[in-house]
Design a protein that fits this description.
Blueprint: H1 5-49, E1 55-64, E2 70-78, E3 84-91, E4 94-98
Antiparallel strand pairs: 1-2, 2-3, 3-4
Length: 99
Amino acid sequence: MKNTPVNIIVKMIALSALAAVLLALTFVPTQAQLKVLQAEQEKQALKAVLPQAADFEPVTGDQVDADGEPIVLYFRGVDSSGNIVGYAFRNTQRCTGVS
């Protein structure tokens, strides 16, 4: 088969389609793992701001994000007995705390 412009274009389209399929197959699991890692990092940041808190309860508003999840306004830090020990607010990508 000759390397005519039509053959080259067909080969490039096939290669591009294969690359798109491979990218799509890796995107979904990568995004799921990314969300898990972001949640772990957020928990570590909250613990750094309010080390006396045993757990953090997200407080949400009426608005939802692009995924349909409620937007977290702030976190309520509670001790092991459920008593409030402070609050943590998001400041762009960081958490700040108030005790």
